[in-house]
Amino acid sequence: MPVTLESDPITSQRTLNSYVANWADLALRLVNELATGWARGRPHPPPTDAAAILRVIRPAQTLAHGVHIAPLTEDDALDLAATVTRLRAAIDACVDGEVQDAAEILNEVMAANHAVPNLHRHPGMPFIFAFHTGDHTGAQARAADMAASLALVIGSGREARLRRCEAARCDRVFYDTTRNASRRFCDLQCQNRAKASAHRARRASTLTDRAE
Ligand SMILES: [Zn+2]
Fold first, then answer.
1. Which residues does 153 contact at the CB level (< 8 Å), separation at least 6?
2. Which residues lie across from 120 on neighbouring strands?
3. Backbone angles phi and psi of 72, in degrees to 5
4. Mean pLDDT of the chain, nearest integer
5. What is the mean pLDDT of residues 147-151?
6. Which of 17, 74, 78, 120 is spaced 20 to 30 Å from 136 by Cα?
7. Residue 1 belongs to a domain
8. Sequence-distant (≥ 6) Cβ neighbours of residue 147 within 8 angstroms
9. Distance 109 CA to ligand 1 centre (A)
10. What CA–CA distance (Å, rounded) separates 181 from 162?
11. Looking at per-residue confidence, does 84 or 14 come out higher?
12. Domain membership flag for residue 7
């Protein structure tokens, strides 16, 4: 399957190469678990010890089907958590309109983890276009694939679809797959919270107007 590079403002995640879409999606999920201070109105202290980080990162294993990827150690987990904070900075930069900064961060992460275009497969399986080789450590392979996949989101003109929840006290990130790129909240719970607080603000201003 070729990597799609054309610019297409009205698109969905499905039109990205599925390997890229899966790793970009994992990057967003790990940012939400490991590098988000507030989630859905509540403090969200990310795990700091290797065993807890490893439990969060474990879904990364299931994405590796058909591709040789080294298993994760506890050291890998700590390395990867550090990388995820860099990915958070890149996504935040995109959301804040600083795409140049986002590109520089992703370039750094790709270089530091020796991201390399690489075709590989298990015997009898189709080839997969990945961004790591069999020589990468578990952390390097995943960092390279996540950073390269986010870089492809930007490199195919889709950076405006990288979003951060607009509800108060929520820093969760997501990829907006809506047709007109209009999604503002990470989930229904935050959408309802934002609606309720807008309603309270309107009521308060109405009461103030009456009092004057
Ligand atoms: Zn939210």
1. 16, 20, 24, 159, 161, 162, 175
2. 128
3. -90, 135
4. 87
5. 97
6. 17
7. no
8. 27, 83, 87, 90, 106, 109, 110, 113, 115, 131
9. 26
10. 10
11. 84
12. no
Residue 56: give the domain boundaries.
13-211
Pull the structure tokens for residue 58. 């474990």
Q: How far is the CA of 187 from the centre of ligand 1 (A)?
A: 6
Is residue 8 domain-resident? no
Is residue 146 situated within a structural domain?
yes
| Cβ-based neighbour number of residue 199 at 10 Å | 10
Map tokens 């009092």 to a residue: 211
Distance CA 198, CA 212 (A): 21
pLDDT digits over 78-104, tens only? 999 999 999 999 999 999 999 999 999
| N residues, the chain | 212
What's the 167 CA to ligand 1 centre distance in angstroms?
6
For 114: left if phi > 0, alpha if psi spans -120 to 50, otherwise beta; the answer is: left
Query: Ligand 1 centroid vs 97 CA: distance in angstroms?
Result: 20
Side chain identity at residue 102, one-letter code: A
Q: What is the CATH number of the domain that holds 32?
A: 1.10.3300.10
Asked if residue 53 lies in contact with residue 36, where contact means CB atoms within 8 angstroms, the answer is no
Ligand 1: centre distance to CA 210 (Å): 33
Give me the residue label for tokens 């490991």. 34
State residue 15's pLDDT score. 56
CA angle 35, 36, 38 (to 5 degrees): 160
Q: How many distinct structural domains can be found in the chain?
A: 1
User: How far, in Å, from the CA of 185 to the mean position of ligand 1?
Assistant: 5
Most confident by average pLDDT, 5-9, 36-40, 63-67? 36-40
